[in-house]
Amino acid sequence: MSNQFIDLITKRRTIYAIGKNVSQTPEYLTDLIQHAIKQSPSSFNSQSSRAVILFNGENEKFWALVADKLKSYAKDEESAAKTTAKMASFAAGVGTVLFFEDLDVVKNLQAQFPSYAENFPIWAEHSTAIAQFATWTALHTEGLGASLQHYNPIVDEQVHAEWDIPAHWKLRAQLVFGSVEGEAKDKGYIDDAERFKVFQ
């Protein structure tokens, strides 16, 4: 089918080979990311998503923290070297968006609407996922590559300390981005009959 939005999300892919060869300024990309998150829907318009945007040296600092933390999990020198190389590939990008959910917002909603209390944490996960997807797609429209990573909670303590993050912000994901330096891998799809049911 032909649809502008579908075309955009079809072309948005995981790109692991990224670099710093971008024409956009950090100010422009910050504005883009902020707008993508602000326009992302959330349950009860809670706007519980939070983001810390790291560029250049701050981006490299984050992935160095992750690399240092992961060294303690390495079984041998070979696996340690692979992990270090992987973190270096993320540090090679121009930036990373650290996505958080504000747990105080979730708790306040649970108190206000007790009949929905057990659902608000689930809905918060929906909200952050939508914000991540919207940001990823927005960066794609600028010709940038990105991949979504999840090195929480192993670096939560260091992140909160290094960038003075409020304790009630819960780290959920890291979207690393930069210039496209390599193609995405082929993507396969399971048969539609396994995923969808339609009734008319």
UniProtKB/TrEMBL annotation:
Residues crossing the lipid bilayer are none
What domain of life?
Answer: Bacteria
- Where is this protein found? Cytoplasm
Recorded GO cellular component terms are: cytoplasm
Q: Which GO terms describe its biological process?
A: cellular response to oxidative stress
Chloroplast as a keyword of this entry, yes or no, is: no
Protein source organism: Acinetobacter gandensis
CDD domains with a match to the protein in the record: Frm2-like
Gene Ontology terms, MF aspect: oxidoreductase activity
The record's Pfam families line, in alphabetical order, gives: Nitroreductase
SUPFAM superfamilies named in the record = FMN-dependent nitroreductase-like
Keywords, A to Z?
Cytoplasm, Oxidoreductase
Query: What residue stretches are annotated with the Nitroreductase domain?
Result: 9-178
Q: Does the keyword Cytoplasm apply?
A: yes
What is the name of this protein? Answer: Nitroreductase
